[in-house]
Amino acid sequence: MENKDINIRFAQETESEVILELIKGLAAYENMEDEVAATKEQIHETLFINKDAEVLLAEYKGKIVGFALFFHTYSTFLGKTNIYLEDLFVKEEARGKGIGKLFFKHIAKIAIDKGYGRIEWCCLDWNQKSIEFYEHIGAHVLDDRRIFRISADKFKEI
Fold first, then answer.
1. What does the domain layout of the chain look like in residue ranges?
2. Does residue 2 register a pLDDT over 90?
3. Catalytic annotation, residues
């Protein structure tokens, strides 16, 4: 699926504010605006100085309309590095143009080129449209897994 109006590229160091605005757009979509604590400075430091994660941006007709943020994990069973897709978001006005699929194609090419074993991500259980999209591209839900989380305020209690 080739679309000359869409460009997927890695984010540049000068785009921390744009990334933060897209994160806020995702939070609004998920009704979680109050949970965004990240600042432009934190985005810059963690993504471009520490290189804790990578960000792809989608441009539609020259305007940034989406992002995909991912980082690397490791499978001891496979003995391979994997990609964990933390977030994928496309602004409402740019949905339905194939941008999500192009993000996945780009990420899959990275995984192929580097010999990675998997691409994994989570999806909110109410987001049926995204679930259907993920199934359409060949993903499947791992029913035998549960996500656990310990927040920073509990680290010292362990």
1. 6-157
2. no
3. 134
Bridge partners (DSSP) listed for residue 58? 8, 66
Q: What is the residue whose two structure tokens read 């995909």? A: 68
**pLDDT digit string (tens) for 98-140?**
999 999 999 999 999 999 999 999 999 999 999 999 999 999 9
- pTM attached to this predicted model: 0.94
Q: Which residues contact 3 (CB under 8 A, 6 or more apart)?
A: 97, 98, 102
Residue matched to tokens 């192009």 = 102
Fold classification of 6-157 (topology level): Aminopeptidase (3.40.630)
63-75 burial, b for 16+ CB within 10 Å, e for fewer? Answer: ebbbbbbbeeeee
In sequence order, what are the residues at sequence separation of 6 or more whose Cβ sits closer than 8 angstroms to the Cβ of residue 15?
Answer: 57, 64
Beta carbons of 54 and 87 less than 8 angstroms apart: no
